[in-house]
Input
Amino acid sequence: NAGVTQTPKFQVLKTGQSMTLQCAQDMNHEYMSWYRQDPGMGLRLIHYSVGAGITDQGEVPNGYNVSRSTTEDFPLRLLSAAPSQTSVYFCASSSSGRETQYFGPGTRLLVL
Amino acid sequence: GENVEQHPSTLSVQEGDSAVIKCTYSDSASNYFPWYKQELGKRPQLIIDIRSNVGEKKDQRIAVTLNKTAKHFSLHITETQPEDSAVYFCAASHDDMRFGAGTRLTVKP
Output
């Protein structure tokens, strides 16, 4: 099993550009989530999904969109990148929101 | 939504000493409380967890306690070693999982 995979590992964007961060898991987990990690602020929940076709907002959803068309994939879209979105993004999956979250390796995003 | 507060933000101990990290949560419906360890440049990984029907759980040098009435839980690491140096995160979960801001633990040899 590959577990949770994320692409790309590192990305540089210019302000106003859009992009999609990819996340996939091969553990047949229903629950998937996206977090951003900034120094001193821990892991903040952006969006989460409890199953295919179902998504919900977390603490900091503004500027981000998600969709969940399959159980395996949970892409995160930045609509119009801003410097405030410079961060490390982690995708995670688990059997439910009340179980161990397995994290991907992270995507480091720099917005200039 | 759930709000998790974690203290201290940094902690420095001598090798062999104990380390304690404390967290509080706001949503009384939260029922799952994991702790994650994150080494520099790596992803967070689960080290121990506790559910709301249990007051204490131990795994070798690591223990977690939960006080549901006061809505706080703590991580205890005994006989600390240099390899325990990392950032530790607490979390609380009901329908989604929210994390504390993290504690940077440094264990001095």
The mean pLDDT of chain A is 95.
